[in-house]
Amino acid sequence: MTEMIPPIVVMGVSGSGKSTIGDLLARRLERAFIDGDSLHPQSNRDKMAAGHALDDADRAPWLEIIGLKLAETNHAGSPIVLACSALKRSYRDLIRAHEPSTLFVHLSGGKSLIGERMSARDHEFMPASLLASQLATLEEPGSDERVLTADITQTPAQIVDALLAALPAPTA
Ligand SMILES: Nc1ncnc2c1ncn2[C@@H]1O[C@H](COP(=O)(O)OP(=O)(O)O)[C@@H](O)[C@H]1O
Ligand SMILES: O=C(O)[C@H](O)[C@@H](O)[C@H](O)[C@H](O)COP(=O)(O)O
Fold this sequence. Notes:
By secondary structure, this protein is of the alpha/beta class. It has a single domain (8-166), classed as Rossmann fold, CATH 3.40.50.300. The chain has helices at residues 18-29, 42-49, 56-75, 89-98, 111-120, 131-137, 156-166; strands spanning 8-11, 33-35, 81-83, 103-108, 147-151. Pfam families: SKI. This is Gluconokinase. Pathway: Carbohydrate acid metabolism.
């Protein structure tokens, strides 16, 4: 049986580059890309737009949809790349409960660089003021998790080249 590169979740705080890197990585892998932002219920979008951080209860149904998407596409033989903040280990556990093979790519960087990038972009609902709570909520993936870490000071092309070199090679 052919072993494929697993489903990939590009994770990290808001502004770390999930949409940018996820889209580029998916194109290089010739896979579909889904931005988890598009799966938030309207109530979550409204809450963030009003400057309030989401809590566990707000995120639970969203993570459920994300886990199901990863599992369903993988079982259909078309694993995807998906962008999702996945800030806490319990959130990643919930995703893994649906799709245990999920590989996380953590976009890691400092507050000032991410803050600058957030301030320079337009976002449908996410204000830069929520960066502090995103960083406070982040639980960095442990060495026991299936994860690759990327340094966001590099260009998107450099990041994706390094990720492609580090991905498990498909076997026949
Ligand atoms: N590695 C990078 N180098 C320079 N700019 C980047 C990089 N990654 C993302 N950006 C820019 O930073 C901003 C935030 O990136 P985005 O992909 O929207 O992050 P997220 O989806 O995690 O919120 C965007 O304007 C994007 O173009
Ligand atoms: O769990 C959360 O608090 C949100 O998912 C958050 O982490 C996410 O960042 C927003 O959806 C904004 O979207 P961007 O990550 O694209 O800024």
